[in-house]
Amino acid sequence: MPNPAEYDNQKDWMAACVPTHKDEGDKQDEAVATCLSIWRKHTGEPEPEGKNALKAISRTDDELRVGNYIVLFGGRDLEGVGSENVNADGSKGEYFTADTDLSSSYTKAGALYEDWEHAQAEAGDELLGVVDWKTAKVDDKGVFVERVLQRRNQYVRWLEELGWFEDGTLGTSSHADPKGVVKRADGEIVRWPLFRDTITVNPMEPRMLSDNQLRAFKALGIPVPDDTANDSTPPEAEPEAEANQSSTSAASAAGQGRMRMQQLKNRLTMEG
After folding, report:
1. Helix (H, G, I), strand (E, B) or coil at 186
2. Is the pTM of this model over 0.85?
């Protein structure tokens, strides 16, 4: 394994480090992300935070309170790029607006369940806590909420130990009752009755990706939709040629998710 101390600049380090990690079985996007992280630790540069990363707010012995925007207005997500779902008009990507109706029996009750990676946690630890809907605040970016997580949950403990509530690694993805979802032909989400939320390292919303992940994607020539959080005008449908070119972003994001999930599985094996 190359030593970053033997290299004068990031370019030379990446040229040496990435092939080594690929030889060990990493996919290229995983190798790039890992090598960027190693270089930053060597130089003392802090890991970049996500544009809408989930961050710790307060702690007690039993609870961890974290927050971010559960919904962002404007930019399109990765539907049709990270999945096969395209809009009725053929465009790709769905988006929320300030007019999107998020109300549901759960929001009216004041709480949504919070899970890990779309309920992929071990049985008994699938629920990490709840979204405290009483904290919901709407501004020009979206809807900001706080979540109350149980620190005795093994996944919450591991995520804290890994420092992921501090370094911008984690994003979130909201879930709605599919029977109540209403969308326009161009992907605008008119109604999204919330019933659950998930903490994830593989969000469908590009603005939840960390700058570290985005830089890795750019290093690989992988396009990611622009940040249009402050643009009140609905985004234009993605041209078909560009949409086809960007299809590899789904595999890249999935690779990031696999890498993070493997770290948790390794921890489970070590402690089991």
Report:
1. coil
2. no
